[in-house]
Amino acid sequence: MADHEKTPESEQGADRVLDLIDRVVRPLALYLGGTIVIVLCLLTVTAVGFRYVLNSPIFGVRDIAQLLLLTIVTFSVGQSGRTGSQVAVELLGTVTSPKFTRWTDAFVKILGAIMMGILTVQLVANGLSAAEYGEASNSLVIPFGPFFYLLAFGMALYGIVLLFEIYVHLRGGEVVHHVGTMDDL
Question: What's the pTM?
Fold first, then answer.
């Protein structure tokens, strides 16, 4: 008997829906986020070398490092949500039925999706007004506008992840937080 014959149709659909979102968020986190982590490491090693070996610190390296960290968060927040890597207190599951927990999980994710929607709209608004108010990094005066948009993309992506998971909950499926590897891509 094949694996797909053992599971109810609603769970098969749930698996396909979650696989679809995983195919988007995992490569973003692993490839783009991973590349930026490597760039940040190289920048840090170079900055330390210049500071302590050559006694000549690189001007503005802190600004670049902060913006690279923000970019890493942007690309990883959706994957973090999909793998269950965010901090959660799951006390209800120990004292209630799985059916009740499924509904409370759906409710919490609905609130989270609404919050991500509001945050995305506010980040876009901040990006639009960043140049007007002169929002930029301290040393190199790198404008924050594009980084507000980038962060809005990351929060919107996490909101979409939550919507997919809500859909699975409402269909009666189980949201499995699969921690994948590079081999899964």
Answer: 0.80
